[in-house]
Design brief:
Layout (H helix, E strand, L loop, with lengths): L9 H10 L4 H20 L1
Helix pairs in contact: 1-2
Length: 44
């Protein structure tokens, strides 16, 4: 399986989510997942 590593900062990811064509529920879900990933990374 191919892996792709992307280097984006938190602000860039939040901008991508906000500007996506996703509906509000999808944006909320993506934001929640992103925040949980950031918390996990911080805790490690």
């Amino acid at each position: 399986m191919t892996q792709i590593n992307l280097n984006l900062n938190a602000e860039q990811i939040q901008d991508i989510i906000a500007q996506s064509g996703a509906n509000d529920l999808a944006k909320q879900m993506l934001t929640t997942i992103f925040n949980q990933l950031m918390e996990k990374e911080r805790d490690e």
